[in-house]
Specification:
elongated, 108 residues, mainly alpha
């Protein structure tokens, strides 16, 4: 036996009116944007400009090597009288339990 479709209880006129109202609203928004941004919409595309490829010259390579040497010397404590990290850690470990006490005198 074929069953009859149940009435959903929704007024078709209200659904149609709502759909038409939404479409009118969207058309009004699109019209507003077209008027407000007409100068931007009709603007021509910018001309593409390509940047030159990055290049490393010999002088920059030599400069990089000098910077790396200076950094190695600083880390090793050979420049600016800096203490090497390894030596500083040895001095802290040598102080034992008092290693983190406030410093009262200059280190040797």
């Amino acid at each position: 036996m074929a069953e009859r479709a149940e009435n959903p209880g929704v007024d078709n006129r209200a659904v149609g009116f709502t759909a038409i109202a939404v479409l009118v609203f969207l058309a009004a928004v699109l019209g507003f944007f077209a008027l407000a941004f007409s100068g931007t919409i009709n603007r021509p595309f910018p001309i593409m400009q390509y940047f030159p490829q990055p290049q490393v010259t010999q002088n920059e390579a030599v400069q990089r090597l000098h910077l790396e040497d200076a950094q190695r010397m600083r880390i090793a404590g050979q420049n600016n009288g800096a203490l090497p990290i390894i030596e500083a850690m040895r001095q802290v470990a040598a102080r034992g339990a008092k290693a983190y006490d406030p410093v009262t005198e200059a280190p040797p």
